[in-house]
Amino acid sequence: MEIKELILFTKNIERQKDFYERVMNFEPCDEEDDYVCFKTGRSRLKFIRSEHSDPVHFALIIPGDSYLPANNWLKKRVSLLPFEGDEIIDFPNWNAKSQYFYDADLNIVEFIARRDVEGSAPSSFSPKAILQIGEVGLPADDLEALYNRLNAIKPLPRYSGDFKRFGAAGDPEGLFILANPKHKEWFPAGDKIKNAHLMVRGDYNFEYKNQKIKQKNLHI
Questions:
Q1: What pTM was computed for the model?
Q2: Domains of the chain: total
Q3: Is residue 101 part of a domain?
Q4: How far is Cα 69 from Cα 66, in angstroms, rounded to an integer?
Q5: Calpha distance 3→21 (Å, rounded)
Q6: Which of 61, 140, 152, 215 would suit a FRET pair with 88, their CA atoms being 20 to 30 Å apart?
Q7: Is 122 a member of any domain?
Q8: Is residue 220 part of a domain?
Q9: Residue 93 CB burial class (10 angstroms; 0-12, 13-18, ≥19)
């Protein structure tokens, strides 16, 4: 599954711009007074100015052999969110290793090194090693209903989880992370899951707000 663009909302676009451009050295691809966009490999990450925003979770895929140089690179820029003392968290069932941090809006950003996704790491890590946006978190009280709504847009395979507390739908190149805020918190720091407002463009095109999906044509 391809996620070409993830659109998030921010109360302080200047702070997010400073974080991704100055701290993280992401390359801007478009900017106006009310939005800013950054290159994330084959995809794009866009922030739109808004009076309302709550933290969300998303992941950026990096090459499977790049988690150590990525760790060294990240630690110079952000405070990583460990799990049981580990900064690099192994997911053997997903054939991946992940590390997490907050951006300026306390969105939970994940660098996931996936050995099932083709790509090789450069000699020294930089944002140019990012392959694409690989995960988007979608909170809902009824995960089965949410999954059925996504599957109605276009057939979507189940990837992992019981789809009551947690479910991942898609494939290693792109996943929707379905999380029930009544029974789960965001991994790894146990953040409370709040309703998300975001938009996705790619194989699935929709706006997600107040646990409802609205299909729409989104253009880059």
A1: 0.95
A2: 1
A3: yes
A4: 6
A5: 21
A6: 140
A7: yes
A8: no
A9: exposed
**Neighbouring C-alpha atoms within 13 Å toward the C-beta of 91:** 20
Instruction: Give the position of tokens 């409370």.
Output: 192
Q: Is 211 exposed, middle or buried (0-12, 13-18, 19+ CB in 10 A)?
A: middle
User: Torsions phi, psi of 42, nearest 5?
Assistant: -80, 0
Residue 115 lies in domain: 3-215
Q: Which of helix, strand or coil describes residue 180? A: coil
Q: What tokens does 138 get? A: 């979608």
Under 8 Å between Cβ of 72 and 125:
yes
Specify the pairing of strand 57-63 against strand 108-114: parallel
What would the two tokens of residue 122 be?
Answer: 């450069």
Q: Where are the beta strands (DSSP E) in the chain?
A: 3-10, 28-32, 35-40, 43-49, 57-63, 89-91, 96-102, 108-114, 132-139, 158-161, 166-171, 174-179, 197-202, 206-209, 212-215
Cβ–Cβ < 8 Å for 195, 182: no
CATH number at residue 132: 3.10.180.10
Distance CA 83, CA 85 (A): 5
Tens digit of pLDDT per residue, the chain (220 long)?
999 999 999 999 999 999 999 999 999 998 888 999 999 999 999 999 999 899 999 999 999 999 999 999 999 999 999 999 999 999 999 999 999 999 999 999 999 999 888 777 667 899 999 999 999 999 999 999 999 999 999 999 999 999 999 999 999 999 999 999 999 999 999 999 999 999 999 999 999 999 999 987 755 4
